[in-house]
Structure prediction request, 512 residues.
Amino acid sequence: MKLKFAFLKLFLGFISLLTININFSPDVLGEELLNVELDKEIKKGNFLIGLKQYLGGENDSFSRKKNINFLTDKGFLNLISSNGIKYNSKQINIIWVDIPVRHPKTIERIVFGPFASFESAKKQSEKLKGKGFETTIAFPKNWEVWIPFEDDLPQFELKNKIFRKTKNIQITPFLRSDNDVIKLEGPIYIYAEDEIKINDVNFGNNFYLIQDSYGTWTLIQKIDFDDYLEGVLPYEIGPNSPLEALKAQAVIARTWGIFNSDRFNMDKYHLCISTQCQVYKPPKIKNKKVQKAINSTSNLILTYDNQPINAFYHGSNGGLSATANESWQIKNYPYFKTIIDGSKSINNIFSLPISSESDLNNFLDFDREKFYGSNHSLFRWNRKISSLNIKEKLIKNRLVNINENVLELNVIERGSSGRVTKLEIQTDKVNQSIVLVKDDIRRVLSFIPSNLFTINKLSDDLWLFRGGGFGHGVGLSQSGAIEMAELGFSYEQILNHYYRNAKLEKIELWSQ
Prediction:
């Protein structure tokens, strides 16, 4: 420990006077940077995307030995730090240093969760707000809801825990050049006219580094809507999809991003780049078909009652679309209906809702070629799962202990599309069972591709899950949209099929 602090003291001793490249301008942009206004950026047509989260911490898989290197082949990079430092160079090297806190502070809060989705966390947050609590939705690893710790808090129905941690160190960024090491403060703005490489990967030309709510840092890209979509469409629906399907995906990805731009408010950015948001990767090569789909639908979004809709989409609905409130613990939206995803002729064969196991089995047995998107690899699926495997999933999620054994699985509720909304798991613990609800079913039993399934007990130790589709089943089915486009449907017809009574409208941006 003494060696570590001796090194730190030596390291901080290198912080020297200015070089010709560095200027201190405490009144220039410092205060402006501290107030990154998320709503204004949306109105200008920009997303702030959390490219890399938890930088400088134990789970930082991006920084190389707590080091980030920014490089441009043309022109110069510019850095502005909130403590007034301005720097320009062909290369910017930022390192993270754990600095001891002079006056350690103990952080206390009540944590609810984990939740399988932002939607379920938001619903719980709204319930707590309704009872007068100040809430925060966080994503340290899974979605959680936080409220401040108080001594006289009541008993809560939902599972929660007390989080208590003493903050002894502060992860601090330093600018390192050939001769200097300069302390920085966030937000830190880094930009250039040309493409910037970050740890040898081309990302774009406009970035922030902002400290998050967990003591670590986030690398945030500022990017306009259409450039963002160029990094979404190839990874969400695939660049080789028919043009009309790509257009439909462009409209809903833009709409979804705007509607969900409050997900990471607490950490000063809009969206992440994983499946918790929309998958985004900076495109290495421009795809002409993707660009055409984006340009021909530029600034078009879906609205209902003059507001952007929550434009959910997924890989495959198994031939049967879901409503929002049977997939998550949220209210339903009027533009999501339970529909049989196929031609008009097939709609006359099955009656809705499909609520019984026998009706769902009949549906799963029907000729798959009659449905849109039936060529998806998980349109129909079977999973033989042992009781031990189920138990392992329950232990991982801290729902049972190692001495309990799974005895029975019972579907106790289905939604209007036949999807399982409540699943009871009985163990050998007397007078106690586990009930998984909606999106928690797939979160805990992660071997299930969707909630559209039936269960058959093959033996005391083996279960057959038989189902259809991949994902939550709400909104556009990407495999269905691809087949509809191949059959000659326009993107407007595809959108109207999956989002009933939603309108296609052009948004007005401040920059236009």
Notes: The chain has a mean pLDDT of 89.
